[in-house]
Q: What sequence folds into this?
């Protein structure tokens, strides 16, 4: 989607991926190589003006190495912080963003002490390489301590207090090389099995909370000297915001911006890393994004719906894999209800769209 957004601007892309069927290879030349194959990366660096990434698990050492051979944005230090949940949570506190209670866990004794601090339920997470619900174990009772350690023990971990949040919100924002900062309207998100299921934007929240969310995102971008698009994931809880995660890349909760904003997150990321002026982040109306996970549904009902847009990533179906998405756009929030209801019925996705409909109708 980055390559598709950059092409109308006159730019061409070269993709590095170890997978032979990498979906970006459908729209740009693919250099098949491991991210630690420095000989191949040297060849890559010699053919590009700027290197960027759309996946936060690219080794930070690789990004750092590339800085000696080409421009790299976002900078490797920002990537390294976002790859470590403990560093991330620590940074949140430094910029004034509250977080759930957390504790470092390197042994089962640490885990027991952490549970005493956070209480139960709590979530044990790997500090690194976890996304879309991977690398996590929910502890609901003391007996779960041993089971959680058996599953995740042996790598650096972090225990976080479980938050019975009111809603999940993300700030998708962009910062340029010159330090210009822009943000998209706040987005509300719903997850199923740890994977994003649906997003609604713009979401109406208390003005004070909205200003706080944007201010904390801006503070993070400044602290990290960040260049490009990123997402700050937040829990809305008891009238306040708690920091969950930062994603140093274009984000699934910002996919609605392709059709739903004046300038999409993908185009703005390209603009930012190339040193171009940033585009308008205003919404064109109201949008709902539905993720297709595991396999694609029938495209025809979507294509037959005015205001609906179909995206097939060209990925083979696999359980838990994001293989595409659909965005429905309307002039108002009320205008989203009937199209969503029709698609829910025709695709057999009533369960997926139900919480979005409830939010739109004020019936939560």
A:
């Amino acid at each position: 989607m980055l390559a598709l957004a950059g092409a109308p601007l006159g730019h061409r892309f070269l993709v590095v991926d170890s997978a032979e069927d990498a979906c970006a290879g459908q729209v740009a030349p693919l250099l098949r190589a491991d991210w630690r194959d420095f000989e191949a990366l040297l060849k890559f660096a010699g053919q590009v003006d700027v290197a960027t990434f759309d996946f936060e698990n690219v080794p930070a050492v690789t990004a750092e190495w590339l800085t000696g051979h080409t421009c790299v944005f976002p900078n490797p230090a920002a990537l390294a912080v976002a790859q470590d949940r403990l560093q991330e949570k620590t940074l949140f506190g430094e910029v004034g963003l509250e977080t759930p209670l957390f504790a470092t866990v390197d042994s089962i004794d640490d885990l027991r002490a952490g549970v005493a601090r956070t209480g139960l339920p709590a979530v044990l997470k790997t500090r690194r390489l976890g996304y879309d619900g991977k690398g996590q174990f929910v502890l609901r009772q003391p007996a779960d301590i041993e089971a959680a350690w058996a599953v995740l023990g042996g790598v650096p971990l972090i225990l976080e207090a479980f938050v019975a949040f009111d809603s999940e919100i993300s700030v998708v924002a962009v910062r340029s090389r010159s330090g210009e900062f822009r943000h998209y309207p706040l987005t509300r998100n719903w997850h199923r099995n740890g994977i994003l299921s649906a997003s609604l934007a713009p979401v109406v929240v208390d003005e004070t909370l909205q200003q706080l969310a944007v201010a904390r995102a801006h503070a993070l971008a400044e602290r990290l000297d960040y260049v490009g698009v990123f997402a700050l994931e937040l829990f809305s809880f008891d009238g306040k915001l708690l920091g969950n995660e930062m994603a140093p890349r274009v984000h699934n909760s910002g996919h609605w911006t392709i059709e739903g904003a004046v300038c999409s997150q993908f185009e703005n990321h390209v603009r930012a890393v190339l040193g171009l002026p940033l585009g308008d982040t205003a919404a064109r109306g109201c949008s709902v994004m539905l993720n297709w996970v595991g396999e694609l549904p029938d495209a025809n009902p979507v294509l037959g719906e005015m205001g609906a847009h179909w995206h097939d990533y060209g990925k083979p179906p696999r359980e838990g894999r994001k293989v595409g998405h659909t965005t429905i756009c309307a002039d108002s929030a009320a205008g989203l209800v009937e199209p969503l209801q029709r698609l829910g019925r025709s695709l057999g996705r009533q369960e997926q769209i139900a919480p979005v409909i409830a939010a739109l109708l004020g019936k939560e």
